[in-house]
Amino acid sequence: MSTKSYNKSKNTLVIVESPAKCAKIESFLGSNYKCVASFGHLRKLESLDDIDQYFNIKYKNDEKKEKQIDKLRREIAQAQEVILATDDDREGEAIAWHICSLFDLPVQTTKRIIFHEITESAIQNAMMNPRTLDMNKVNSQQTRQVLDLMVGFKVSPVLWKYISSNGLSAGRCQTPALKIIYDNHVEIANNPGNKLYNTTGYFSGGIAFELNKEYESESTVCDFLENTCEYNHVFTRSEPKKVFKEPPQPLTTSRIQQLASNELHISPKETMKLCQTLYEEGYITYMRTDSKKYSAEFVENVKTYIIQNYNDKRYIHNEIDSLKNSMKRENDDTPSPPPEKTKPKKTKGASKKAKDADNEVKPQEAHEAIRPTHLEMRDLGDDNDKIKAREKKMYKLIWETTLESCMAPAEYYSITANISAPMDAKYALTSELLNFLGWKIVANDKSLKDEKENKTYHRLNQIKQGSTIKYNKITCKFVLKNLKQHYTEAKLVQLLEEKGIGRPSTFSMIVDKIQDKAYVKKEDIPGKRVICKDFELEDDTISETETTREFGNEKNKLVIQQMGVVVMEFLYKHFNELFNYEYTSEMETILDKISKGEKVWTDCCNTCLGEIDGLIGKLKNAEVEHTTKKTTTGKRSDKYEIQIDDTHSYIIGKYGPVIKCTVDSKKTMFLPVKKDIDISILESGGYKLQDLVDTATWTVSSQKGICGINTNVLGTYEDQDLILKKGKFGLYVEWGTNTKSLKVFGNRPIENITYNDVVKVLEETSPNASSNTVRNLTETISIRRGKFGDYIFYKNEKMFKPEFFKLNGFEGDYKSCDKTQLIAWINDTYHIY
Questions:
Q1: Which of 85-89, 244-248, 267-271, 798-802 comes out lowest in average pLDDT?
Q2: Which residues pair with 732 in a beta bridge?
Q3: How many angstroms separate the CA atoms of 28 and 119, rounded?
Q4: SS3 214
Q5: CA 119 to CA 124: how far, in whole Å?
Q6: In what ranges is there compositional bias, type Basic and acidic residues (predicted)?
Q7: CATH of 145-192+486-621, one of 1.10.460.10, 2.70.70.10, 3.30.70.270, 1.10.3720.10
Q8: Neighbouring C-beta atoms of residue 62, cutoff 10 Å
Q9: Gap between the Cα atoms of 514 and 558, Å rounded
Q10: Which of 464, 474, 530, 583 lies closest to 228 in space, CA to CA?
């Protein structure tokens, strides 16, 4: 039996996608190896004109890559052997094929290697187990590219014709993703929430119990409280039972995007960028994967690590071996290539079989879940210039989640206590006492101390079964429940995965795309302010209080814009068959089948082309509803236009929705539109012109008078009309009984003064404005200017003195960055909220 190896004496060129990998790979392979990068795709498919009727494709060199193409040509000419080492996914396989085609390398014999971590053992193992190109995967990628091009080049021009000729687009995955946001938008609009009363009972020791009923009316609440006065409340308690909290699952591409969004407040796009850096620097495995398994070697290493660091085998999950991959690729754009005859590499921690025969059949190394390459490295140090604070946080998240996924469940004792109540109701409280940390020992944060010492649990156990217990206080608080929430980026990624739209490697791009097109924006949503009447029973006396509370306010959520609504409703009216969730998911399944050689790629393209052409043909033959209306000029038009009155209409302009004001046949002006316009109400004629025009962003000018808008009203401020006026001493502004001089604007023309300009002056000169405040972040946190530079000021209503924190370590511009990013950094760094 001989040992499998590879030729180290040849002058060999290894081609990867990213230049960041080159130096590290060269250091593993030795002086006879040179590693160069393609910098991604070298060729492109520009238009449908480059595809003939038989789907023969004419690719063009990317002009931006000409220098790299020339460099690769020189390097290939000098090499004795070329090895392709592009990423292990459909795009990577296609890039490798393009390199063969562009530089006349034989597809059948050019070596292709696969690795999922940039470590010496992984690279050496890949070199000993080369394969050739998988043309099924190349065909699958080519199909995806052609389908995307057909949708973009055929459907997008329809949007230009019927809605607006400026920048609108449809996409095979982009449009269904937008539909997810749109459907949620419709649900939110149709769900005002339920007005209810939550009842809380405070009994012995001040422990709060929640009533199992919610009341809808004030009269029912009063009846309940009146009956409570004479009621004997009886306490019962269940026997303690063991409950288990399972560890997190291994990290797939989708899950790391969701977890990073929720835990670190990092977007899917930024998450993939950070993971790419960690992968290229050799700290984690490949980050584009659907697999929830680890290599057998890694699982054995985890077992050893847990025993060495926690001194107890109980911390190892009793089903940890089920996490070992079977060496067969899962559905991750990466079907198994033909097996190679090879000798497996000896590893530490796994079984160390001495020597195997050269002819042993071993499949290519399978994809794994995202994990650290070196488990012993809990944190990243400061010795790598490419690793900044955000990369360190991402690595820590991956390291902790990976280890936790291999550990035993956390074990609790749980009891449920009940207290009887009038009107067939009861109070209930479930309390848990931590008995065994399990996977939670990894983070072992401060909150676990409370779970271990749970005073409520012990107090409930001390109360006598069946005893009568007196109430201290009963509160009935008004709530607005079951309000539908907007989606976060993390939630959208989850839904894309559940509905089969796109692939893990494309989720971040899809989420980014619908925002780049301004169909969707990430925004804060103000809540509904409601006057609430609350009730309280104490000492058999019922009292009422009125307060104003806010319900449904949200931070950093994806909100569909008016343009997104218009585009979405048009596409799903006329192209529903092409963009519905089921069709999009089925298309991904077909791409998978092509990658396995189970379907012919050109058949898929032909079918899709016929469907697109058929839908476009129907639209051309049908009368589009909005084209039956005359425009403000009296002419008919294909363009999307909603008539408001004889001279005003709502259209999609170059930069989004605007009000078109046609004074006469020669003069047209465009007015900005308010953000929160409901398109369905607009289409039904439910808005007046004054309701639609956004005076806050529109300059005061003679246009307002011409277009039928009050010339001097800028908007509202403190619930009053904010009116710009010119008096004996110059410009001033008036709202209600208040006035303020605008001398600060000097000789600025009146038509150049906006609502925002005026409000800024009012707020800066307010008696409550702090002269040293740089930026207000929340009610309790602000950035202040001090003698030695800017700092973080923190004080809540319970604190006697404020606390001060440094801004050192924040990488963005704290004066102009996204506020939520800065707040998240402060929360994570100083643990203040």
A1: 798-802
A2: 725, 741
A3: 8
A4: coil
A5: 9
A6: 322-332, 353-368
A7: 1.10.460.10
A8: 16
A9: 10
A10: 474
Q: For 9, phi and psi rounded to 5 degrees?
A: -95, -20
Tell the residue number behind the tokens 């619930």, with chain if given. Answer: 719
Q: Which two three-digit tokens encode residue 12?
A: 């060999």
**What fold does the segment set 194-246+409-481 form as a domain?**
Topoisomerase I; domain 3 (2.70.20)
Whole-number pLDDT of residue 657: 85
Shortest CA distance to 827 belongs to which of 258, 264, 262? 264
Rounded to whole angstroms, how far apart are CA atoms 773 and 814? Answer: 13
Looking at per-residue pLDDT, the higher value among 455 and 697 belongs to: 455
Rg (CA), the chain: 33
DSSP H helix total and E strand total for the chain: 24, 31
**Which one, of 428, 583, 444, 441, lies nearest residue 500 by Cα?**
583
Q: Angle at CA 251, nearest 5°, toward 134 and 96?
A: 20
Give exposure, 124-151, as e/b (b: 16+ Cβ within 10 Å).
Answer: bbbbbbbebbbebbbbbbbbbbbbebbb
Q: Which of 166-175, 466-475, 812-821 is predicted with the least confidence, judged by mean pLDDT? A: 812-821
Q: How far apart are alpha carbons 421 and 611 in whole angstroms?
A: 63
Alpha carbons within 13 angstroms on the beta-carbon side of residue 508 total 22
Is 194-246+409-481's fold the same as 253-332+367-405's?
no
Rounded distance between C-alpha atoms, residue 715 and residue 735, angstroms: 10
Task: Over range 680-697, report the average pLDDT.
Answer: 78
Per-residue pLDDT reduced to its tens digit, 703-727: 555 555 545 667 667 667 778 877 7
Which residue shows structure tokens 């930024």? 270
Q: Which amino acid makes up residue 72?
A: L
Residue 56's pLDDT band (cuts 50, 70, 90): very high
Domain 253-332+367-405 CATH (choose: 3.30.70.240, 1.10.290.10, 1.10.1240.10, 3.40.50.300): 1.10.290.10
Rounded CA separation 475/200 (Å): 5
Which tokens sit at 785? 């200017």
Distance, in Å, from the CA atom of 405 to the CA atom of 314, rounded to the nearest integer, reads 14
Q: Where are the domains of the chain?
A: 145-192+486-621, 194-246+409-481, 253-332+367-405, 773-830
Q: What are the residues facing 783 on neighbouring strands?
A: 775, 792
630-643, pLDDT tens digit by residue?
444 445 456 788 88
CA 646 and chain centroid, separation: 44
- pLDDT at site 673: 84
Pinpoint the alpha helices (H) of 341-388.
none
Structural contact between residues 93 and 137, judged by C-beta atoms closer than 8 angstroms: yes
Which of 35-39, 215-219, 341-345 is least confident? 341-345
Highest mean predicted confidence (pLDDT) among 90-94, 326-330, 673-677: 90-94
Q: Which helix (H) or strand (E) holds 704?
A: helix 702-706
Cα separation, 273 vs 20, in Å, equals 13
What amino acid occupies position 546? E
pLDDT in tens, 500-523: 999 888 999 999 999 999 999 999
With the C-alpha atoms ordered 23, 29, 35, 41, is the resulting torsion angle positive or negative?
negative
Residue 627: pLDDT band (50, 70, 90) is very low
Q: For residues 688 and 679, give the distance between their C-alpha atoms in angstroms, rounded to a whole number.
A: 13
pLDDT at 353: 33
The rounded distance, in Å, linking the Cα atoms of 777 and 807 is 14
Distances (CA, A) of 504 to 109, 258, 496: 31, 11, 9
Residue 371 dihedral angles phi and psi, to the nearest 5°: -155, 165
Tell me how many degrees the CA angle 452-455-456 measures, rounded to the nearest 5: 115
What are the φ/ψ torsions at residue 652 (nearest 5 degrees)?
-100, 110
